[in-house]
Design goal:
Helices cover 10% and strands 24% of the residues. By secondary structure, the protein is mainly beta.
């Protein structure tokens, strides 16, 4: 029976329609912050709505202000989901992408708003600003959306992340520090199908749902609205989730003691349905906990209503009406209710008028503020200042042979310790040789550049390569990564091809300048879990113990170079080598390269120093784009990176492969020193021909069918794509499978044609293509075999 007051009408005329959402309240209950935009008109363009701005209301003074006073500043991006940090700063989600735009400028691109991975709108990511709207800093770097931020008691920010990398599509909870460090999965990556939906006939299904609107409960659990992407009347089901002890519904963290249970619990008995059907238990659209130790919730809930087919009136649901398909769902009517899980009661607080819904709710109730954590990187004393200056962070992997705390055979049953022993044959035969770092390419809106869909090829994304780093004998890695970019990693072999035994790391990672992120190793994709239970997640610290014990003692590793000594028990080879390298060679061992280069530095010498002189070292090899010592080993065509990056790697180096510029030219370059071989295996000439001598309809034996049913001409085949591209990556007449499997170079039959003794693509001593060319083709396939990987080089749609 309290008086309802409209606190926003003062800033716009009564005849204007404005929109408000994403409410939050300060910990002391004195202020409310929210997103608002307007005016809304019937004639506005769908792609040009009013800008969402952040506004703040002070209860004591009854004053309302826009946080950014300048129109130019306020309208420079769409700003939503604001939340107070303990010191008064504000975290919010925005399309401003402040630091990401700085990266684009450094890449010689316009500073546009990157689109999400669905190419539907600008990506919203988290930013932090002062209470007066100044000093805006971007803190997350997801290529899709980061929304619904909230600050929990330990000072971390919890938010809903749309994880939409290739092969993934789900919204789950992530956590980060206010300065963007330690961004990691919090909960739910593989628990999207663990929520039962029960039909009237008793049948139970587990639809795919998403984790949205996280809010912390007084007991530390996370309150969430669980709902599918759409088609459930805007609402879903309420769940309380124990993220302190679980990362998935039935996956405990290491710190949890006791019997395995389930993380998710309903606070209500309502039979809420999670599919597009009438829900007898109604649906929830918003909820806020009371901080009074009662576990009560203020919720926005719509009861189940149907449309009577004869009278067209709205009627309440019952089993007979729900079973009758003639009764269609009535529009939802979300109002405020007080939910008490202790006695399973739900009492009305505010019933909406017909045609209205209440979408957001907060309670201006004082509570203990969260722990303070700095939002400014300059205040974070754990960060490395030299790395910050270079614009990089460090990724430290304990061993790529550690799969979720289980020793995985590195090769032929070898253990990690055997592979790390330089005198053991396991060292020579180890499969994992390099870590490749791949970067998401930001895509502009069509209003900036309308990229032709054909430009993506068979993959609906674009990628660049940031570089390669050797994997040490024990599987450890310590490598510099450009800060403030979304990246993924892949374990590759000596040919630069991803090893299928090491699952692709599909989730996007990011580092802040000066930050070091550590992980134990790689991960196993686990399937065939029981119905209604989750799989296993890996993207959070404290889930698995390391299976690799590291150095047995301080000092040199067994049979290893005495330059690289462990400073303590348990240290990895990568850390030991990095310590020496940063003292003697400007950290060369942790600096990536755009080339694949291996130096066999680990074997132990026989002299007193136990170090093999460089002049006596064997086993070194390189797969460069351009080889200055042996030019015939590298590319004879355009390199996919700058000349500067071929020699010295920096955080701004990018390998950008466009098919016509970098792959098609390989088919067209002269094959000096090789004879042409017809389809009968006969050498008929020794001229400076190219691949088209055989692979075109006018081939050497005049059969009219290209060798291997493969036409490598540049001529346009489908849309803007060359004939050669289509025939390499898309199945066509006369071929059982395409020669190239996009995303999987190791299983592409293309490379089987270039073995040393292949009569068609070798002169008996080596393949027609150089190692540098084969490496370029391998990595291009692995990252997706795109037609273009630069939206500003790609053609535009007519």
């Amino acid at each position: 029976n309290a008086t309802e007051r409209n606190i926003t009408a003062r800033v716009h005329p009564s005849n204007e329609r404005w929109d408000v959402k994403d409410l939050d309240v300060a910990a002391d209950g004195s202020k409310v912050i929210f997103a608002m935009r307007g005016p809304l008109t019937d004639s506005q363009q769908d792609n040009a709505p009013p800008t969402w701005n952040i506004w703040e209301y002070n209860l004591a003074s009854d004053s309302l202000r826009r946080v950014m006073t300048s129109n130019a500043d306020a309208n420079a991006g769409q700003d939503v989901s604001p939340h107070y940090l303990p010191d008064g700063h504000i975290v919010f989600s925005s399309t401003r992408q402040i630091q990401s735009k700085e990266i684009l400028i450094s890449e010689n691109k316009p500073d546009f708003e990157a689109q999400d991975e669905n190419a539907s709108e600008s990506a919203f990511v988290l930013h932090v600003m002062n209470a007066d709207g100044t000093n805006i800093q971007q803190i997350t770097y997801n290529p899709s959306h980061d929304l619904d931020s909230t600050v929990i008691s330990d000072g971390r920010i919890v938010f809903s992340r749309w994880d939409h990398a290739l092969g993934r599509d789900g919204i789950h909870f992530y956590a980060t520090n206010p300065d963007g460090t330690n961004t990691e999965l919090l909960y739910g990556s593989v628990s999207h199908n663990t929520f039962p939906d029960r039909a009237l006939n008793g049948a139970t299904s587990y639809p795919t749902v998403q984790f949205t609107k996280p809010r912390e409960m007084p007991d530390g659990r996370i309150l969430s609205i669980i709902r599918p992407y759409n088609e459930t009347e805007y609402g879903g089901e309420l769940y309380l989730i124990d993220t302190q002890n679980y990362v998935e519904n039935n996956q405990l963290t290491l710190t949890r003691s006791g019997t395995l249970g389930f993380a998710q619990k309903k606070p209500t008995l309502n039979a809420v349905r999670l599919i597009n059907a009438p829900s007898s238990g109604g649906r929830f659209i918003a909820a806020a906990p009371l901080w009074d130790n009662t576990n009560r919730l203020l919720v926005s809930w719509s009861q189940c209503r149907l449309i009577d087919p004869s009278t067209k009136a709205f009627v309440m649901c019952n089993n007979s009406r729900l079973a009758n398909p003639a009764y269609l769902p009535a529009p939802p009517s979300y109002g405020l209710w007080l939910l008490n899980p202790n006695n399973d009661t739900q009492q009305p607080v505010l019933i909406p008028n017909e045609g209205e819904i209440i979408t957001d709710v907060v309670i201006a109730q004082p509570r203990t503020p969260p722990v303070y954590r700095p939002y400014d990187l300059n205040s974070n004393l754990t960060l490395d200042t030299s790395l910050k200056t270079d614009g990089v962070g460090i990724l430290d992997i304990r061993s790529v042979y550690d799969f979720d705390g289980i020793t995985t055979a590195t090769s032929n049953g070898c253990s990690i310790s055997a592979t790390a022993d330089i005198t053991n044959s396991c060292y020579t035969n180890r499969p994992a040789r390099f870590l490749r770092i791949e970067k998401a390419v930001s895509l502009p809106a069509s209003t900036i550049r309308k990229v032709d869909p054909d430009a993506f090829g068979v993959t609906n994304s674009m990628r660049e390569i940031l570089g390669y780093i050797p994997i040490e004998p024990d599987g450890s890695v310590r490598v510099k990564i450009p800060a403030n970019v979304a990246f993924q990693i892949a374990v590759v072999d000596t040919n630069g091809r991803r090893i299928s035994n090491f699952p692709r790391h599909n989730a996007w990672l990011s580092l802040r300048p000066g930050e070091t992120v550590q992980c134990n190793g790689c991960h196993t994709v686990r399937t065939n879990t029981p119905t209604g239970e989750s799989g296993f997640s890996h993207g959070r610290n404290g889930l698995f113990n390391s299976v690799y014990s590291g150095a047995n003692s301080a000092g040199a590793f067994t049979h290893a170079n005495h330059n690289f000594t462990a400073s303590k028990v348990g240290e990895t080879m990568a850390r030991a080598r990095a310590a020496w390298s940063c003292s003697n060679e400007n950290c060369a061992s942790i600096t990536p390269s755009v080339n694949i280069a291996f130096s066999n530095v680990w074997p132990e010498g026989t002299a007193d120093s136990k170090v093999i002189p460089t002049s006596a070292r064997s086993g070194d090899f390189t797969l460069p784009y351009q080889d200055t010592q042996i030019p015939t080993r590298g590319l004879r065509t355009l390199a996919p990176t700058s000349t500067a990056c071929l020699n010295v790697w920096t955080s701004l180096c990018r390998v950008t492969i466009n098919y016509l510029d970098h792959i098609q030219t390989i088919w067209e370059r002269q094959l000096i020193g090789f004879g042409d071989i017809n389809q009968n295996g006969q050498i008929i000439s020794d001229t400076n021909d190219n691949c088209l001598a055989c692979h075109s309809p006018q081939n050497i034996d005049q059969s009219g069918i290209p060798a291997g049913h493969l036409d490598l001409r540049r001529t346009t085949s489908t849309g803007l794509r060359a004939t050669s591209y289509q025939q390499l990556v898309v199945q066509h007449d006369g071929a059982t499978t395409p020669p190239i499997m996009a995303g999987d170079a190791a299983h592409s039959r293309f490379f089987s044609q270039f073995s040393p003794n292949n009569p068609y693509h070798s002169n008996g001593t080596g393949p027609m293509l150089t190692p540098g060319e084969l490496k370029l083709i391998s990595e291009w396939i692995d990252i997706g075999a795109q037609y273009y990987n630069d939206p500003f080089k790609a053609p535009v749609k007519n």
